[in-house]
Amino acid sequence: MMYKRAFAAALAVFLFVSVASAQKAELTISLNEAFFDALLDSVFQNFDPPEFLMAQNRFNRTDIESERSKKQRDNGKNGAEMFYTEYRPAVLPPTLRHETPVCRESVKILRDINGVRTAVRFREGKIYMPLAFTGSYAPPFIGCVEFAGWAETNLQLEFDQDGQRLIGRVKVFNVNLNGTRGIGGTVIAKLIQTSIDKKLNPIDILTLDNLSFGIPVQKVGNLRMKALRVRPEVGNAVLNVKIEYEFLKG
Asked: For the chain, which has fewer Cβ within 10 Å, the N-terminal or C-terminal residue?
């Protein structure tokens, strides 16, 4: 009994001194491609596919201003008025609006399409995320156009110290599109790229508070862990997340 009490007292003193000197430690978490494959399988099996609306502005404002300036130079003020008249959406009479099918104008992420799977892959120090998708869009004067394809993206990781979480930001660098029947393919590809960039980000990868634990110190208090830095290291088919913690009193 005396030995146990002496050991507990010595441990309490040691831990207390460690707190005063801001003792640090490092924890490594390894996440491989098989883990993300199982996670994505579970997501698509248990929930509806992720879906988000495409960008609301059908024309890039810079392109519009550029085109308007050109019209003004060529035709004067009347030319600019013709430009806006030309691109004004048609308004249907109230009696016909209910008969017009609604185009959802959205992008839906799928698990796979035409042999391409939505996945997370670690290659050459980078995180690649191919995203299979389908959707629809209504270019002016054309009607609803269905499309499908896949986007080539990178996932960039960053540490949110205030929120104690590791987040990822998807960056689209190429869109492979088919199914538009040659109608507005370039415009749709740009809208898909913009929508994915804005609507998916940021993605929570790890919440570090859930990975910390408290240590009770007899008659002194508790120690808690706080993440100071996170260093993601991409290896061959694996992501190693190195988390540097400090132990704080409280």
From this structure: N
Predicted structure pTM score: 0.68
**Contacts of range 168-173, beta carbons closer than 8 Å, 24 or more positions apart:** 168/127, 168/202, 168/203, 168/205, 169/201, 169/202, 169/203, 170/129, 170/131, 170/196, 170/197, 170/200, 170/201, 170/203, 171/197, 172/196, 172/197
pLDDT tens per residue across span 121-142: 999 899 999 999 999 988 888 8
Q: Please state, as a whole number, how many other Cβ atoms lie within 10 Å of the Cβ of residue 162.
A: 6
Cα separation of 29 and 26, whole Å?
10
For the segment 44-102, what is each residue's pLDDT rounded down to a tens digit? 999 999 998 886 544 443 443 444 455 455 555 444 343 333 333 344 444 444 444 68
